[in-house]
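Long-time lurker. I teach an intro course on protein structure, and each term I like to show students one example going from raw sequence to a predicted 3D structure in token notation. This year I'd like something fresh instead of my usual example. Would anyone be willing to generate the tokens for the chain below so I can use it in lecture? Attribution to the forum is fine with me.
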Amino acid sequence: MENSLCDTIPIIISNIIKEGTLPCPSYISITGQRNEKIEYILFQNYYVSSINIQQINREGRWVTILSDFRLTNYPHFENDAENWYIIPSNFFNENFIPTYFKELRIYLNQPSPNWRDFTLRNIQCFTVREKPVIKKNEPTSAFCKLKEKLQEKIETLTNASGSDLVSYEETMNGIVEVTRLEVSQLQ
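-- Reply from a regular --
Happy to contribute to a lecture. Here you go:
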């Protein structure tokens, strides 16, 4: 994982959709704005006891990819009711299609009558990308190294003693100094 980084997947999150009057199945729909491989789902719980996650497959059917994932130890108490969770994709079952992110539904379960309001907050989805390799432009030949050193000297001369103007003598001294460099010093 040293050469990788997490990147946020742009998503659209619905409000809670209730399939009737409580108690009834309630879910949050997450729609991907680009089709990317989901590696992690991050969210903050707000009094939800457990969740089930479904994914729409290529045939347009909803399949369960995570069942009864517990968010609280005891649904009637608030001890751990507002914890943060990261669900990695390796928690999902064989129905999960990681590279097909059209829509997910997170079903919220709360059997306790103590909590009228329950939801998930701050939902984010992440993918893992390989870090771009930054190539350092190193000169390969002695001539390229000499050219680089010359450029450094010219920059030094233009910035010499707080003045933008450099006299002819200063320029000549700089060039003479550069021409005295030996190739072995540049390696």
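Some talking points for your students: The beta strands are 4-9, 11-13, 17-18, 26-32, 40-46, 50-56, 62-70, 84-88, 103-109, 119-130. The chain has two domains: 4-130, 142-186.
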